[in-house]
Amino acid sequence: MSTGQELEQRSSDAFVGANAGAPRHDDFELRRSVVYDVSKRVFDLVVSLIVLILLFPVIPVIAVMIRLDSPGPVFFRQDRVGKNGRVFKFLKFRSMFREAEEHRKDVESLNEQDGPVFKARSDPRITSVGGFLRRSSLDEIPQILNVVKGDMSIVGPRPPIPAEVEHYQPWQRRRLEVTPGITCLWQISGRSHLSFNEWMRLDMEYLKHRSFKTDLLIFLKTIPAVIARKGAY
Fold it and tell me: I want to staple 142 with a disulfide (CB 3.0 to 4.6 A). Which of 73, 91, 117, 137 is the partner?
């Protein structure tokens, strides 16, 4: 079986586990390796540098589009929970109207995701340019700065907001044992089209099998996933 097929099989196994009934505590020893940690950090910095160089001409264009589309800052900053529960400032290009977070309760009925997360395709708080940025995943570019700072990695579970973590079951909190990432198994497997439980199971699958090879495969599979835009909104 090829490495790509192995990754797909792990994703499939995680889906089976997610739909097999009440979740259990995933009792496994987290893989720890100095070599892996160092190689992962080098990979993060090298990829971040390459991405910043390639997208540098695009960043000012996106900034101008955001400012012309609606009043407000270019960047969106939000508290997110990182490794071992440490809170950090998460960066994205702003894709919603200013003060959108203050009006979340007004759109709760539009939520299309189960669990403690909120995701809605028809969210009226999203600007015209913001919709394009989300579908193309260009709104994620500023997270490269989070990677450079060490708050995030290129590959790892997506960082949740504190309010979501408050509702986590013990087994779901295990995803906080590693540095969060820009892309992960969830990102390449359907994103918002998946249930919350499927999402968490995919993160558990990553924790069990994480390695430099796995990270590289997920990174490479992210490119066609972004192009396909499946589950991106």
Answer: 91
